[in-house]
Design goal:
mainly alpha; 2 strands; zinc; Extracellular metalloproteinase
Length: about 220
């Protein structure tokens, strides 16, 4: 694992669980996106989302109860409470202001990933707020707790989205995954969470929209 040189002596990322989870998820998302071709995350936006998915699963594994709390990646390797990202992942726009329109000025893949991961943090928070939290989800992904539902939607959506997905097509894949597995029971929860970060019904070309479907 990568040796981080922000401390003396350097710190090995293999000793920080969320770093390991982040790297492991690259294999999952690379292989599953677009139906398993293994070459479907090549554009800048898709590569950024790859980083975001990895941060998101690290976030998911570090949550221990309801409510979902703000999450910071990489505190050990940096020996810094701020971690390795620009903001904590949070539902608070004061704590993390990133939204879909932020992509207008971002081109580095990890920075793009922060926008996607923070959006998904909001989705996870919304599902747990409605459905509760399972403390055994990491070893028993059954039941209907919010973090369990999120895990299923996260994984189910990967092969549904096209090669080189965008934020919009990945959003749509998650909503479709909910229709497939849960008969759309979480549709309005998902739309509301996505819209809170600019990915509403009418979002397009990296321009925010907060609209949800009329029946929500």
């Amino acid at each position: 694992m990568f040796l981080w040189d922000m401390t003396n002596p350097e710190r090995d990322g293999a000793l920080e669980n969320d770093i390991i989870v982040h790297e492991n998820m690259h294999g999952v998302t690379n292989l599953m996106t677009g139906g398993g071709t293994g070459r479907c995350l090549q554009t800048t936006e898709a590569c950024g989302m790859r980083e975001g998915w990895s941060d998101t699963m690290a976030d998911w594994t570090e949550q221990t109860s309801s409510p979902i709390v703000d999450y910071v990646l990489g505190q050990y390797v940096t020996n810094n409470a701020a971690g390795i990202r620009s903001h904590p992942y949070s539902t608070s726009t004061a704590t993390n202001p990133l939204n879909y329109s932020s992509l207008q000025t971002l081109s580095e893949v990890h920075a793009i990933g922060e926008v996607w991961a923070n959006t998904l943090h909001n989705v996870l928070t919304a599902l747990v707020s409605v459905h509760g939290f399972s403390s055994t989800a990491r070893t028993d992904p059954s039941g209907t707790a919010g973090n369990v539902v999120f895990l299923h939607l996260f994984i189910d959506a990967l092969p549904l989205q096209p090669c080189n997905p965008t934020f919009l097509t990945a959003r749509d894949a998650i909503i479709q995954a909910d229709a497939n597995r849960f008969a759309g029971a979480n549709r309005c929860i998902l739309w509301t969470a996505f819209a809170s970060r600019g990915l509403g019904v009418n979002a397009t070309n990296h321009v925010n929209d907060a609209t949800v479907p009329s029946d929500c």
